[in-house]
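Late entry, evening session. Most of the bench is empty. Finally got around to the prediction I had been postponing all week. Sequence below, unchanged from the version circulated by S.P.
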Amino acid sequence: MDDRIAFENKMEALLNEWKPKAGVLQEKIPVIKPEKRPAYNAQIEILEKKYSEALQRLSELKAAPEWRQAKDRLEKTWKELSHAYTEALRQFEGVHD
């Protein structure tokens, strides 16, 4: 398997693993303190946008004749998504009733 296909498969697997994590955050909404819900919802929206962007970058990678630049963009987006998710978890610890 060449490097490109291996990277595509790796990123696709990582993105597939991330989707259930987003579901966990969505499930917490009913137990979030009402005054904290707007910030929590805003953070979830950011995560959803980053996830959509990562999926778009993966599609670009698969279609790109020169894949190294597309790879770099996807890696950057993945790091941003991972950071935003970690930050959301940290920020919202203890915000439930």
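Two things to note before I forget:
The chain has one domain: 3-91.
Residues 3-91 form one domain.
Will write this up properly tomorrow.
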